[in-house]
Write a structure and sequence with these properties.
The complex is a heterodimer of chains A (72) and B (20). With 72 residues, chain A is an alpha+beta fold. Chain A has helices spanning 11-20, 25-31, 34-37, 41-55, and strands spanning 58-62, 65-69. Chain A is globular, with a radius of gyration of 12 Å. Helices cover 90% and strands 0% of the residues of chain B. Classes of the chains: A alpha+beta (72), B mainly alpha (20). Chains A and B meet through helix 2 and helix 4 of A and helix 1 of B.
């Protein structure tokens, strides 16, 4: 198993990803897989929800899927 | 597993739709 703490689920990390390109919730979850962050599934969902609420990203439908992104 | 990822995505979207 990968060591935990390899990837950190932080506001800065989420901001960085969403500034690069629009992402779905699934895309984001893939970036912060529990096996890489050491967080539980619930903690991951809660943390991402809080961070997305705070960042309040733009939303855009691409291929019928909601994507989030941040304008610089 | 992909089903766990699906569940997490669904839970996250539910949280966000609640708010936004």
């Amino acid at each position: 198993a990968a060591s935990s703490g390899e990837v950190q689920l932080t506001e800065e990390a989420v901001r960085r990803y969403l500034s690069r390109k629009p992402m779905t919730t699934k895309d984001l979850l893939k970036k912060f897989q529990t096996k890489r962050t050491g967080l539980s599934s619930d903690a991951t969902v809660n943390a991402l929800a809080q961070l997305l609420k705070r960042l309040d990203p733009e939303r855009k439908l691409i291929a019928d899927k909601m994507h989030f992104f941040l304008k610089e | 597993s992909s089903s766990e990822a699906d569940e997490m995505a669904a839970a996250l979207e539910a949280e966000l739709n609640h708010f936004m």
